[in-house]
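Protein 1 of 2
SEQ + STRUCT:
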Amino acid sequence: MIEITNVQKGFPGNSRAIEDLSLTIPDGKIVGFLGPNGAGKSTTIKMMTGILPIDKGSITLNGIPIDKNSIEAKKTFGYVPDQPDMFLRLKGIEYLNFIGDIYNVPQTIRQERIDTLTKQFQIHTSLQDYIQTYSHGMRQKIIVTGVLLHDPSIWILDEPLTGLDPKSAYTLKDMMRQHADKGNTVFFSSHGLEVVEQLCDMVAIINKGKLLFYGDMKQLHEEYQTDQSLEAVFLELTNDE
């Protein structure tokens, strides 16, 4: 479970990027995080993962505060950033072993997971190549594989489907569903509204740092008295007059 309570975040020369945000992402659910560019999605996710400090409020992951006990909190989640251009001078296998070492994944389990995941994502034949030679989609796949390697209970994914081919995107969506169905937490941002509508149990919509809606599709339709698609309601909610 992720608990975001009365969180605020600002940057120099800018109004608050996040304004008094409270959000509970429960176990056993896939929660989609939506908002237009600049709405505060990535800022929120970076505070959740400890990359950015919290100005005010608190964020806990499985009851562990990210700002006060960051090491323990970071052991509970896996994070896929919106830009997978990291560790480019490492070979694919070197990166995965590096992640395995950080999280103390035993060699037998590590190798089994590496074999399974990289074959599912169709990158097993490229593990001896340097990540800098990978396409954007392949870089995304190696980062996702690293995230899943230590089997964290919480997945925090920032635009995880971007750059993936249809088969790999289907595989990841199926993994997300299975992970949540086991009682774990999946939180992901996306611009793919149809994917969110089909896959997610709950949807959070943010704009200009403020939460506009949080609930399931039934609640969305009831609150706004409409049977329109998520896309239509989203565009109406985030329309800047």
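Protein 2 of 2
SEQ + STRUCT:
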Amino acid sequence: MTNTAFLEACAAAIGAQHVLTDADDAAPYLGDWRRRYQGAARAVLCPADTAEVAAIVKLAREHRVALVPQGGNTGLAGGATPDASGQQAVLSLRRLNRVREIDPHNNTITAEAGVILADVQTRALEAGRLFPLSLASEGSCTIGGNLSTNAGGTGVLRYGNTRELCLGLEVVTPEGEIWDGLRGLRKDNTGYDLRDLFIGAEGTLGVITAAVMKLHPQPAARVTALAGLGSAYAALDFLALAQRHAGPLLTGFELMSDFCMQLVGRHFPQMRYPFQTRHAQVVLLELSDNESEEHARTLFERLMQTALEEGLVEDAVVAESLAQSQAFWDLREHISLAQSQEGLNVKHDVGVPISRIGQFIEETDAEIAREVPGARMVTFGHLGDGNLHYNVQAPVGGDPKRFLAENEKTLNRIVYDSVQRHRGTISAEHGLGQLKVDEAAHYKSAVELKLMRAIKAALDPLNLMNPGKVLR
């Protein structure tokens, strides 16, 4: 059947005004967040609800048109960008933007896939609850995208990834059927866990249209601190000490190298570095206490005193106000922006067992220094869950574009080989998309790939759901 027939059928199903074919209208949907990938599409399709999504999927199956599901288009691995053929169609979920229900007694919120993450946080707050998923892109990323990539963020240490915050899903299958799995149950031992198949699948097995997400009580107080340390090894010991002292009250534990802090200071001088001297590593930690701020601050001061006495921490400062706490978090959140200001770099979103982070950094830094003398390491991330953003900046005075062209493949291999030796993962929270699909095939075992391909073939035998992402 012709492309015209497909588009006419889509227009009849969801309204002609929601089938975008004009180049200017479609343009915002065809490139990725980092501007690394630029695709083309037959059209951008914008259904309003689950029934319309199902109708589009059935039409795509009938006309053999591949669909690329897209939420807020904030992904960092090209997972929501169509290829350059112009034969695929983008399926935008932005109009599925209703919060269907908040259940305070069950501590759940049911939200459609296109609801902005910050809006879920706000609606939870209005109900006296906390939705703890927090990302730098929370003002524009969507719940559907968070689920499709199993997003992490700063609260994983206490609350887990998006997968652990989800109780139930509504999904349109590749056949255009609707699976209603919107059950807000903590226990349901009735067979295969279909929910977890779709979370982290990046739209390759079906289209998530709504989800039941866990809520938590709002903490009575949050206390934030920065600590300067001599090494990543000391940071690991400090993490263990903090966990012993604070237990589940410890909600954030972010590691930032000295070079990260230098970059932020260079490009955002208004952001004050709180220490008089520089430290090899800086840790940002936060406690969330359901009792009182006094209780949290007393616990924090006891923790810091012990850490200083044991020589784990060289210096520390505890935020005295919400404004100062936000200033500490701003230092962390501006690292990526400072990198961009500094110039092009080779980015890695890796995960290794927490106990091996110090060794991983030490060994990989040394290997990169031998291979690319002068390369500058931008190392930061969620130490509490083993997720590092391990990025490599060009040498001072070097041409960043030439640096990338000459060294990206070599640096990727060094980093990923080191990750493999340390029993880690090449993608801890950004997904595979099209950026790492070939790398994943290189590092995953034959058995694992065989199982993944069997699942894909069983659910999507025509390969119309986001082809070329996660698996080739």
